[in-house]
Amino acid sequence: MFKGIFCPTITPLTSEGDVDYGAWSKHLNFLIEGGVDGILVLGSIGEFYAFDEAEKRRIIDFATAEIAGRVKVFIGTGSTRLKSAIGLTRHAKSAGADAAVVVSPYYFGPSEAAAEQYFGELAEAVDFPIVLYNFPDRTGSDLSPQLVSKLREAHPNIVGIKDTVDNISHTRAMIAATDADFAVFSGFDEYYLPNRVAGGAGVISGLTNVYPELFAQMHQSFESGDHSAATRPAGRISNLMQIYAVGDQFIHTIKEAVQRRYLSELNTATREPYIALSATQRDAVTRLVDSSEV
Fold first, then answer.
1. One GO CC term of this entry (predicted)?
2. Is there a binding annotation on residue 168?
3. For a designed S-S bond to 221, which of 151, 229, 283, 286 qualifies (C-beta 3.0 to 4.6 A apart)?
């Protein structure tokens, strides 16, 4: 079973909007040295929606080669087109990734029957671990614990879920509905401890881009049984959650925090549309990042 701290990495871009592989190499190594257990490429913070299929394949090839087995690699392969999701998932497998993370088809927000059909056909088409991605605020539909349990029982290669729901009771019900080998990750940074207490696998969350070592310390303390020590980094993470409220788009704001903390050459723009942070907002990000330094 997958477990621990997984970072949905940002995708650094040049001022022209191309992938900045040099900056990304530095960032991936920063994450690995910071102690994360795995990295998710082409997640929401990685702007999966903004790249065409050819770009995604190049990104997958680069990231898997750069990480080179040092930590687990998840690849976001979700698409509203099942054929595209199957193709990208097969490419992720051939590139050496460990699992595909597949978001629910979005825009129309599928019914439970449609979601069951979509994920079931995907699981049948690929001999590869699949982690479901539940993000109702973006997809317009929720993967219920009952549906996830049904998919897991029918398709053993559906091995986990990223439950990005700001309600720990939803994630707790997901854990209770599935077997012990099914990895239930929370998608919100501050839910690591309640997730683990409930029997979950950990978090896949954006602030790991900024302070991977904080999350690693928390995970290591929990794993060792020193739950009191785990609460100290958890408190700092709770304070950092304010970063998400700064600016128009949290992806851009996370990039700003990464730049302010250590990667000064990082271009903080996302692919369009986005609104640049104001000077006041940039200062707010700086204060939050500085306040969490040891």
1. cytosol
2. no
3. 229
